[in-house]
Amino acid sequence: MGKIVVKIGGVASDNLTQSFFQQIEEWQTAGHEIIVVHGGGYYITEMMERLNIPVTIKEGLRVTTEQALKITQMVLIGQVQPTITTLFQQQGFATIGLNASSDNMIQGKFIDQEKLGYVGEITEVNPAAIEGVLYRNYIPIIAPLGMTSSGQWLNVNADDTACKIAEEVGAEALYLLTDVPGVKQAGEWLKKLSIAEVEELKNEEVITGGMIPKINSAINALENGVSEVHITNCIEKAGTVITKEEVFA
């Protein structure tokens, strides 16, 4: 069976319910390999505010100074990831926390160092680092950090990280968890969308705000080999499933 990539938020209590773990177990029982990518923005902001460090957002991205990068690393690898791996292990799952330095797993480059600081975009994912963990029947829990070719750490977007990983491992499904059950149009949660329909909904301003970058990441994943992307607030529900447009011969 194929691989399923799940992107969860950093607030574990919001995502990791009993029904979440039941779904993971069902997937594993059916022979699927599971990969989890986690965020952590809430806790990064909380820590920066506690240390009286200003939080600046430009074009939807957190401006990441050298100081902010250290806090981001500390929170993601030292707080959020261990919390999530522990919760999985308490439910009987074998997990390993991975990050950019794990066998050069996530490589990236600066987006605009002058404007955004140490914010990067992913240029390459080393699938062997992930496959090695899956081969041993572990669930990799991956932090959204990248590293340049010279070894500089970068803050990268968690949705983008999940999408790039899904592309590289040839995932059959990608779940992007958010705080709503999917994409809404005229009061109805949509069950299915094609890429072409997504573009129409963006033009009609049905898809707006923070959903746009999430949807854009989903489209990139679909165009690079992922079979389907689910936008949902819990993995037990399919949410809005986005697929490549059906082409009939």
Automatic annotation (TrEMBL):
SUPFAM superfamilies: Carbamate kinase-like. Keywords: Amino-acid biosynthesis, Arginine biosynthesis, ATP-binding, Cytoplasm, Kinase, Nucleotide-binding, Transferase. Residues 3-233 form the Aspartate/glutamate/uridylate kinase domain. CDD domains: AAK_NAGK-like. Its EC number is 2.7.2.8. InterPro entries: AceGlu_kinase-like_sf, AcgluKinase_fam, ArgB, Asp/Glu/Uridylate_kinase. It is an enzyme of class 2 (transferase). It is found in: Cytoplasm. Pathway: Amino-acid biosynthesis; L-arginine biosynthesis; N(2)-acetyl-L-ornithine from L-glutamate: step 2/4. The keyword Transmembrane does not apply. Substrate binds at residues 40-41, 62, 155. The record marks 7, 214 as: Transition state stabilizer. GO terms for molecular function: acetylglutamate kinase activity. The keyword Amino-acid biosynthesis applies. It catalyses: N-acetyl-L-glutamate + ATP = N-acetyl-L-glutamyl 5-phosphate + ADP. Belongs to the acetylglutamate kinase family. ArgB subfamily. Catalyzes the ATP-dependent phosphorylation of N-acetyl-L-glutamate. This is Acetylglutamate kinase. It comes from Enterococcus hulanensis. The lineage of its organism: Bacteria, Bacillati, Bacillota, Bacilli, Lactobacillales.
